[in-house]
Design brief:
Number of domains: 1
Radius of gyration: 17 Å
CATH topology: Rossmann fold
Number of strands: 7
Strand order of the largest sheet: 2-1-3-4-6-5-7
CATH architecture: 3-Layer(aba) Sandwich
Structural class: alpha/beta
Length: 248
């Protein structure tokens, strides 16, 4: 019988410790699968920050390093400048990248550092018990916004893809989602484009992946997927915000 699923070369056989329904695992697979298809497994270095994103090193059989909270872009900048021919990427969550790491990611993009960032946006701090993040939606309840986020108290959620796309040296910026097979296929294409931008040494590449966090949202996995589509995508529209002509 033909197998319906096989491990991608480059994935480890480590047992997942992500919560049921979490889409970090999907994002991990898309990245390592793309690197395998590009023949880059032996020439890649990843940097992850503190948070659920840091688990990535368990599941990818490539060189990985851990940064302090929010500082993965600084670490990746140093790695890429020392090893310009390596494929370098950061893997970060919204509480990490859009909060304590905002300065790091904005200035890396402004400098046009030639690495990729994969930004997992699930609108909440995941690992540290579900606090409000910079991307938490208006009305969304978290452990630190138990009546729901308000504009008056916390301002509006930050749209990172739109913000990064205003910086000229961020040559490729796209937002995708992980809530359906069709959207996951498009997400893989975005991951591939980001690595191609780096391979061609064109500049900084940023892919935002809208993701679920069923545990901290208080939803069953299938309802979390639906919530993403009905609530996140209207505020965080999918699409390409910047793309160089050299990349299809």
């Amino acid at each position: 019988m033909k197998p319906v699923f096989t491990y991608t070369k480059g994935m480890t056989d480590a047992e997942t410790n992500f919560c049921p329904g979490c889409t970090h695992g999907i994002a991990n697979r898309l990245i390592i699968e793309t690197l395998d298809e590009m023949g880059k497994l032996g020439d890649t270095i990843g940097a992850a920050s503190i948070g659920c994103s840091v688990q990535i090193h368990k599941f990818m059989d490539i060189d990985m390093c851990e940064s302090t909270h929010g500082r993965a872009p600084a670490v990746a900048s140093g790695i890429k400048r020392v090893h310009p021919d390596k494929m370098v990427f950061t893997y970060q969550g919204d509480g990490d990248l859009a909060s304590i790491g905002m300065g790091e990611i904005v200035h890396a993009a402004a400098r046009g550092e030639k690495f990729c960032t994969f930004f997992i946006n699930n609108c909440v701090y995941g690992m540290t018990s579900g606090q409000m993040a910079p991307t938490t939606l208006i009305g969304q309840k978290t452990t630190t916004s138990q009546e729901g986020r308000t504009r008056e108290q916390a301002g509006m959620p930050i749209r990172m893809a739109e913000l990064i796309s205003t910086l000229e040296c961020a040559v490729y910026v796209e937002r995708v989602a992980l809530d359906s097979p069709a959207h996951i296929r498009l997400a893989k294409k975005a991951v591939r484009r980001a690595f191609e931008v780096q391979e061609k040494k064109l500049g900084f590449a940023f892919v935002e992946l809208l993701s679920t966090c069923p545990t901290n949202w208080g939803l069953q996995p299938h309802k979390a997927m639906k919530w993403l589509g009905e609530n996140m995508i209207p505020y965080y529209p999918l699409g390409v915000f910047r793309k160089p002509e050299e990349v299809q």
